[in-house]
Amino acid sequence: MRRTTAAALALAAGTALTLTATGCDTVKETAGDIVSTATAAAASAATEKMNEVKDGVKATGDVKAGPTSTDGDRTVAEITATNPKDANADYTIMVTFRDADGNFLDSVVLNIDGVEPGKSKTGTARSNRTLSGEPTAEIAQALRH
User: Fold this and answer.
1) Is 16 strand, coil or helix?
2) pTM for the complete prediction?
3) Burial environment of residue 103 by CB neighbours within 10 A (0 to 12, 13 to 18, 19 or more)
4) Within 10 Å of residue 43's Cβ, how many Cβ atoms?
5) How confident is the prediction along the chain (145 residues), in pLDDT tens digits per residue?
6) Which residue in 3, 8, 119, 142 has the fewest CB atoms around it within 10 Å?
7) Separation CA 68–CA 111 (nearest Å)
């Protein structure tokens, strides 16, 4: 997933530099297209990762996203999985970051493994790139397996 996003961002940066000489409006439009492409690549990679989980049971209700903060140049959120079952469980969780208007910014997948019955365990969702504004984190999908 990181390779796909990194490749898209590297291509985007190279394209933006090449187009700098063509005029400010063209660069702004191209930069917007590049961000859209990188965002779509992150979403696609996250969806592919979720599709790799075999024998997973929908468990969105078992998982909560905490408030976001920054860690270096990335946005992070603490994710908590609470296992209501009577056996240890692993969770694969897709977290979506959105801006104040609800627009999609980024999507990541994390695993929280070995959650004991009746217990909670946390993990950290970390954005793939720098996000501007004050993004929020939400649980897009969660699978217990």
Assistant:
1) helix
2) 0.72
3) exposed
4) 17
5) 444 444 443 434 444 444 444 444 444 444 444 455 556 666 678 888 888 888 899 999 999 999 999 999 999 999 999 999 999 999 999 999 999 999 999 999 999 999 999 999 999 999 999 999 999 999 999 999 9
6) 3
7) 18
